[in-house]
Amino acid sequence: MRVLLIEDEQRLAENIIAALRETGLAVDHAAEGEAGSHLAEEGIYDAIILDLMLPGKSGQRVLQDLRRKKLHTPVLILTAQEGKESVVNLLNTGADDYLGKPFDLGELLARIKALIRRARGVATPILVVSDLELNTVQQAVRRRGQPVDLSPTEYRILEYLIHRPRAVVSQQELLEHLYDFEWEHHSNVIEAHVSNLRRKLNAAGTEPLIETLRHRGYRLREPVATP
Amino acid sequence: MTGDISITRRLIVTVLVLELLSAISLIIIVAFHERHVQLKAFDASLVATAESLAGAVQDAEDEADNVMLDLQEVHTSKDAAFRVEDERGRMLGSEGEPPALETAGRQEPSFRDVELRGHAYRFLVLHRLRIVDPGKLDGGVRHTITIVYGTPVAHVWHEVLEAIRFYSIATAILLGVTASLMIWLLRKGLAPVHELAHEAERISSSDWRFNAPASAKRTIELRPLALALEAALARLQRSFEQQRRFTNDAAHELKTDVAIVKSSLQLLSMRKRTVEEYIRGLTLSVNDFTRLENTVQKMLTLARLEQQMENDKLGAVNRSCSLRDAVEDSVNQINSFAQLKAVDVQIESTAEVRVPIDSRDAFLLCSNILLNAVQHSPDGSTVRITLTVNEQTVQLTVKDRGEGISVEDRLHLFEPFYRGDPSRSRKSGGTGLGLSICRAICERAGGTIEIVNGTSGGALVTVTLPAEVLEDTSGLSASLKTQ
After folding, report:
1. B136-172 in b/e burial notation, b at 16+ Cβ within 10 A?
2. What is the mean pLDDT of chain A?
3. Which of A153, A176, B340, B368 suits B359 as a labelling partner, its CA being 20 to 30 A distant?
4. Set of chain B residues whose Cβ sits within 8 Å of the Cβ of A113
5. Taking CA atoms, what residue in B is nearest to A52?
């Protein structure tokens, strides 16, 4: 999952980025309204954290422009402004959530994850596909009750695929959603990670969970009607 | 309520009193005039009646050619008293009891005021010549008839009183009409005052808008009040607006700083970390704390300066320091930072002068200005400082070679939390309070601070402060000495 942070306070941004990355999210950062708006409108983000008081272009306008372009990326607003009206106003403009500064970092992470989940139509932090169980809070994966040890990238690929059941996910899409601009990324890196992931998930006597569709991408196998 | 003053009432009372006074004078004049006229008429009627009495004296047709009085055709008034005599004192006729008046001697008719039967009478004494048988050879018999005729004067006074009564009633009616007309006119005329008051009444702490009603602005007497009210309220509103903005900005600033500190610590405690990570995290957290501390410190400084400004108004506090020392101290302090940016800070001219500022504040003023200048200076450039003393003022200028200031920034430069370039945000470490503090220090000392763009680019800060008189007056020559 890839998150965009638009925040002009350098130190605050650093902390939020570090925290988001530690929970397994890819993060891009814009310290200025115009640049943030530009990035947000690329439509590749799973969630946006938006500060209101921004140089260049106000958070309010960034949000308005985003919604006018029919982009429904969940947006969480960060603000130090007082007043109920501004909150109502923001939610009416199309914000999905709101946190006042100073906020709790843990709460911010939980809210962002909830926003991402809900945007994908999942309500609980535990995702289940056939006999595979993925706990997004603990970042733990179990197959048939047995814990599976995954690297952070492998976990993120699996989480993304589970969020898009039955869809064919291209390598490009995975790249876009799993990596931020600070990462070195090539499609063969994805290939390597996916093959590792498939190997680790493979248990004896089961069909591979992840299908590879040549030149098209990957797909999480339709859950077979097994209890 | 006692002590209330009503302009309406005053005006009405004044007008009525004036009107009453003139009416009284008028009545007095009228009374005198009336009396005079009536007396004249009275006298004329006396003369007329006396003449008719004289006319009633006729030939008695007797031997002695005497005369007699025939009153058939004569109408005398009811209370009249008269006596008609001939030259020998023979009474021809009389009525009432006219007093014995000295009648001889004078041929001219003469008037006498006499008291008769308890009433004031006015008598006319008239002498007329009556010739009996003027057709005779000897020219007839000449009789000199003396007529004394008088009537009571009460009638005259009655007429005068009537006139006074008439004018008094007219005055009373006039006063009544004037009073009600004035009340009505004043009500109507004072309507703009009520409208103004009504509009002013609407003002509340949440709604400061005040537009003086057009009726008040049209009224010449009310216009200054309406405009003054408008201006005063606009000033108040601006000041409240500024306060509100300051509070909001201060809250925003503090919350942001607290958010940074909190997130730094929470990030550190998200999971178990290595000692190195902890050390790095704690160092960052302490820096974040320092920043919060700086913000609080500056807010407190600004609050202190503003507070002291209030106190200064109550009583002058004696304090002064050497501005040269403050400049030199701040240059020493900034040097390490300037070297880091490869900016050269030069004192081009200096002078020994004392200014009425606390040494701590003077240092704060100089170092804030210098810090700004160095921060906005491109690498390798020079910041130039001059300190010159004029007769009663001292001028400190700091010139940098930076990008200068934009027109729109100039208006807000000294507002708390204003940052010229918002995209630079707080990376430069400024809280946006530095210049506000500088202005507060200058204003408190009765000086000014202004920032303009230098002729050769860059910003030029000019601080003008009142100089304290020194025993050593070599200030001017010292100012020429360059370092």
Report:
1. eeeeebebebbbbbbbbbebbeebbeebeeebeeebe
2. 83
3. B340
4. none
5. B252
